[in-house]
Amino acid sequence: VLHGCCFTKFALIVFTLACLCVPCYGNRKFIEIDTSSNDVQKGKGKPVFHEQWITQKLDHFNGADSRVWNQKFLVTETHYRAGGPVFLMIGGEGPINAGWMAMNPGSAWLTYAKKFGALCLMVEHRFYGDSRPTVDLSTENLRFLSSQQALADLAHFLTVITKERGLTNSKWVAFGGSYPGALAAWSRLKYPHLIHAAVASSAPLHATVNFSEYLEVVWRALAAENPECPLLVKKAFDTLQERIKDPNNYDNITKDFNLCSKLQIQSEKDRAYILDALADNIMNTVQYNNDNREFEHVLDTNCTIKTVCGVMSDASLGDPYYRFAAFVRLRTITHLLKPCVKDLTYNANLQDLRNTSYSGPHGGGGRQWTYQTCTEFGYFQTTDSPNQPFGGFGLQYHVEQCQDIFNISAKTLYAGIDQTNENYGSYNIRATRIVFPNGSIDPWHALGITSSISDDLPAIFIKGTAHCANMYPARAEDLPQLTLAREHVFQLLQKWLKEK
């Protein structure tokens, strides 16, 4: 399961960043704005944003291929002043979310835009949302889905918009969170003549097949709330792993966790799948702990690490196993407003992920993001480390998914991850005017830049905050260090926009 900016789980077989949807992905519902309200802000009659399209090449790296497609983007001139900079919010592994163009409440980049008089654009990533380069999501077509093609899309987008809008003298600043945060950094690295500066929030710059550090951070985040908390979670999960070995326990497990149908385990992958699914309740809670995501219409924003540890410490609920089951039920029913825990088998989910239709169960992003993890990034959140609370979904389980879904071998997978680090530099990125905000509670910070490389490649490590926290709208209860981090980004932009 991959947790994304907006990474995160599109399917229990997928691995979360993600990040956004734009710009930080997670288990969320996307804001649906009626087209009649896209252009007019209620009560003001003033344009907020417009939906537009641009023609892109299918393959930027093959001059003999003339095929093209239409890419979706949003634009707002609400804060623009002639001669001001251009702010570009980069889309990631899902549809772009129009909520990031709304000023009430205003996300951080729009707050900066108001101060600098910036033109704001948000562009959707190829193969996600409505930006569909091919007729379907066949593995043959997905060979045109890569970060390199996406960066080339951005380069062409900037070139065309600059010409069409007469922005030759305007400086472009790229913004993104999670995977799009990495794209923001890489756009500055690869196209410095187009991108003047970048804000790369919670950006996983290092590609790795075995991302065992993810769950190590989860352990430390729980321990920071209560030193006993991760120990109790581990006891609970150890008990679950033992009970799930015996089919005679399936009825009780089904009842304990309020599964939608009777637990069926017919293979080791089925066992790993359900363990991964149940662990995700805590993984996802930690990743987005206290993030101000209400404006995205996310349902479980008030489910936090404090909630986890509160339930796990409640002896009245029984031993740790029953406390963990109680937390899963609480999060599912009270916070996610679902009647029960979905418990598809590995093979059922596999068939969903093999569906090549954009309208399929994972056509909104799950199949596409899984492909990118199998060809470029890895990011598999395994239980291979001894310093974490879970078990049962190790590296082999994740690697075999790439073979099962796309017929991508382990050799090809490892080669793709090596190529990504070779291409972008991993932790050793060498560029200028990129800032890397990360939160100490966010498991993705383990793959990011948390110490400044140079004055022009500063890191902002925000203690006590989670995934992409600096990107969300400010609020009175924000930690002082989060407020300071947003101000630090503003000061850097102020400095960099004065530079030629």
UniProtKB/TrEMBL annotation:
GO biological process: proteolysis
GO molecular function term, any single one: serine-type exopeptidase activity
InterPro entries the UniProt entry points to: AB_hydrolase_fold, Peptidase_S28, Ser_carbopepase_S28_SKS
Keywords: Glycoprotein, Hydrolase, Protease, Signal
Domain of life of the organism encoding this protein: Eukaryota
SUPFAM superfamilies, per the entry: alpha/beta-Hydrolases
Family from the record: Belongs to the peptidase S28 family.
Record's protein name: Serine protease 59, putative
Organism: Oncorhynchus mykiss
Phylogenetic classification of the source organism: Eukaryota, Metazoa, Chordata, Craniata, Vertebrata
